[in-house]
Please model this.
Amino acid sequence: MTRQELDATLAKLELNVPEAERNDIANAVWLIEEMTALVRKPRLVTDESAHIVLFPKD
Model:
């Protein structure tokens, strides 16, 4: 996202963000995009340890 795109998005959302914070956001956009890509990455349910069910052996 370019600075112009950020300014347009903030204007569309009617958010009043100070200039210094806009620069910080613009510089961090690539981090947010990388995190978003990781969250949207398809994974198997078994990849998450909280979803693994182990039954006790009798």
